[in-house]
Amino acid sequence: METGVFSNAVLSREPTPSPTPPVHWQHLKVLVVEDHSAYRILMGWFLKQLGLGHQLVGDGQHGLAALTERRFDLVISDCQMPHMDGYTMSRAIRLREHANAQRRVPIIALTGNLVHDDPQRCRDAGMDAWLLKPLSLEQLHSVLALWLPGPADVQAPVPVSALWPTRAGLIETFGDALVVDQMLASLLCEAREDSVGLAHACRTLNAPLTAERLHRLVGSLAFLGVADLELRGMRLIERVHAQGIALSAPQLEAFQADLHTYLTYLGSL
């Protein structure tokens, strides 16, 4: 499907049967940018019914931050939001894609008023299609079927454990199984302590302590060469210093969840 073609296929209020979502949708991820909490809940429920991974944020600033942290296959954004509206965010996304030669992510406008949020204004901001509130599951399914990647364009996710150190690899690197066992025990003890400290620092909105715990965890990750988590931790340190904990909460939560998975894996070696 050619990108940049604007679609009004979902403006009809006639309900249509919703077929079973394609199997490959379980490997896709959608970002929803919506300032109204009730609509965030509704969109999250809809996307869950369709088997799609998703992240929900409350304004364009958080939307841009989420896109910096991970790849999404499609963005659904309200047009009118405080702090940064959908138009500003969309233009920023297109500029970033152009500057970094990135794949063009489809952006679907979510609006309750086609007078203020007319299609031409959406087009000019770099949006591809629109959804009109109030929204049904069938209407959402219809537009997603048009704009989400097809199965031929989706690569099965590589298991994260395939990128993590193995026991055999560690023994080969350090030369002795006993040394590896002692090293892992020490690293796990410290990392788990720092992980608990990080969670407490985040709950209490203690930015200096959050950065300190992140720094210690990055050191542990770097020791075993876990590049992805290490890089995310370094970026989070910069983000916490620049924007504080509240604006970094989604990224901190995602990092802690992935860190927990990784530490559980190390404990099984």
Write the layout of secondary structure elements.
Layout: E1 29-33, H1 37-49, E2 53-57, H2 60-69, E3 74-78, H3 86-100, E4 107-111, H4 119-124, E5 129-132, H5 137-147, H6 167-174, H7 177-203, H8 207-223, H9 227-243, H10 249-267
Parallel strand pairs: 1-2, 1-3, 3-4, 4-5
Helix pairs in contact: 2-3, 7-8, 7-10, 8-9, 9-10
SSE pattern: EHEHEHEHEHHHHHH
Which blocks of ≥5 consecutive residues have pLDDT under 50? 1-16
Mean pLDDT: 82
Distance between the termini: 45 Å
The structure class reads: alpha/beta
CATH level-four homologous superfamily name of the largest domain: Response regulator
Lateral strand order in the biggest sheet: 2-1-3-4-5
Find the CATH topology of the largest domain. Answer: Rossmann fold
CATH class wording of the largest domain: Alpha Beta
- CATH architectural grouping of the largest domain: 3-Layer(aba) Sandwich
Modified residues (4-aspartylphosphate): 78
Organism: Pseudomonas shahriarae
InterPro entries: CheY-like_superfamily (IPR011006), HPT_dom_sf (IPR036641), Sig_transdc_resp-reg_receiver (IPR001789)
Biased composition (Polar residues): 1-10
